[in-house]
User: Fold these one by one.
Assistant:
Number 1:
Amino acid sequence: MARMNFKLYSPEVMARHAEMLGNRVKKNFKTLSRTFFKDNVEAFRLYNLDIPEIRAVVDWYAGHVVLGEYVREQTDDESYLNQLSASVANALSIPLENVHVRRRTTRPVEGDRYGRLARTNERIEVAEGDLKFLVNLDDYLDTGLFSDHRVTRGIIRDLVKGKRFLNLFAYTGSFSVYAAKGGAKAITTVDMSRRYIDWAKDNMELNGLQTACLQDWSSTEVREYLDRASIMGNKWDVIFLDPPSYSTREGMEPFDILYDHRSLIESTLAVLERGGVLYFSTNHQRFEPDLEGLLGAVCTEVTALTLPIDYTGRTPHRLFQLVKNK
C-alpha cells in the first residue's frame, strides 16, 4: 500500500486547534481543580486526547503545565506546538514560560524512561494529599510522578501496615513513599537507574520518612535482583511490579512486555510470601495478558478500581492483582 503524504496544517487550522485546546483545558481545569485543590492534589491531567484532531496530553503541576503533543506529519512544525502552548497559558492565566513542552510518539522508544531531553536539573515540589514529590518538568520525557496511579498508590498505602513491601521498576519511588507513610515494616526499592534511586531517596527525605522503617535501595536490573532474591530465600508480603513496555539495554536480555510478562510475573511470585499480594501494572495500549493458570496464584484484573477522575474516557494503564495461595 502506498504511503500517504500529509501536508502541514494550514495556519488557519493550527489557530483553530489552539483555540479548541485552550477552551477545553480551561473547562476541565474549572471542573477538576475544585476536587483536587480541596484534596491538596497539585498534579493532575487536564487534557487526555479529548478532541480527535488534537493528539496531545496536558498535565498540571502546581502552577506549571506539561504539554505533550503526539507528533504527526501534519503537526511536525514548531509553530503548531508554540500556538498550542500559548493558548494553554492564556486559558489558565499562567506565564508562557510555565508551559513545558514534549514531542511524543505513539510508539515507545528505547530509553524513553532513562534518556534526557535537557539538563536543567531543576525540580519543583508538588503535593499529593499529605505527601510531597519532586518533579522535573524539562529534562526527561516523564516528570517523575505518574498521576494515573494516584489511586493505586492509595491502595498500597492502605495495605502495607506492618508488612514487607517490594517496589520493582520503582522509578522515583512514589509507591515506596506511600508505603512508608502507610506503616510498612520494611521497604525494598529497586530500579536499574542510580539517578532514579537517588531521586526516590530525595522523595522519602522530603516527607521525613527516611527513618520510618527498614529501607533497602538497589540500582539493579530487576530480573537479576529477583533471581538473587529467590536464591537467598527473601520474601515480601506486598509487591508492586510496573515494568517498561520494552527494553533492550546493552549487556542484558531484551524485554518485551507482550511476550515476557508471564515469566517476569512468575519470577516475582517466587519471592512473594504465601498469602501475599502482587500488583502488576502495564501502560501498553495493546497488552494481552497471559496470566491463566499461574501456579499458586489467583489473578484478578482491578483496573477499573484504580482509574482517577482526570483519566475518564481512556485507560492509561491496566492493573492486575495476584494473590499467592500456595
Note: The chain has seven helices and 15 strands.
Number 2:
Amino acid sequence: MYWPVLIVSAVLEAVWATALGYSEGFSELVPTIVFFVALVGSMAGLAYAMRGIPIGTAYAVWTGLGAALTVTYAITFGGESASVLKVIFLAGIIGCVIGLKLVHSREEREAEASGAPPIPDV
C-alpha cells in the first residue's frame, strides 16, 4: 500500500508545483487553494509512504516523479518547450523510479527468504 500512496503523493507534488506557478504569488484565489490542498496531501502521503519505504528511496521517487510530471505538464500545455533531450531525460527519471521500485521489491523478497524480520508495516 505504500507505493501507490507514494505515486499519488508525487502526482500531488506536480499539482501543487503547477498551481504555485498559476497562483501569481498567491494573488489568485483558486490556484492558491489548489496549491495548499495539494501540498498538504502530498506531504501527508510522502510521510505515510516513508513508514514502509526507506526515506532515501521514497524521497527520490517523490521528487523525481513530481518533477517529471511537472515538466511534462508544462511541455504539454505550452509553458515550456519540448526537445529530444528533455524527453530522453524525463524517460530516464521514470526508468530510475521503476528501478528503485524493483530493487525495493527484490530486497523485501530476499529479506523474507533469509528469515530476516520483515520491513515494518506501521
Note: The first helix runs from residue 2 to 22.
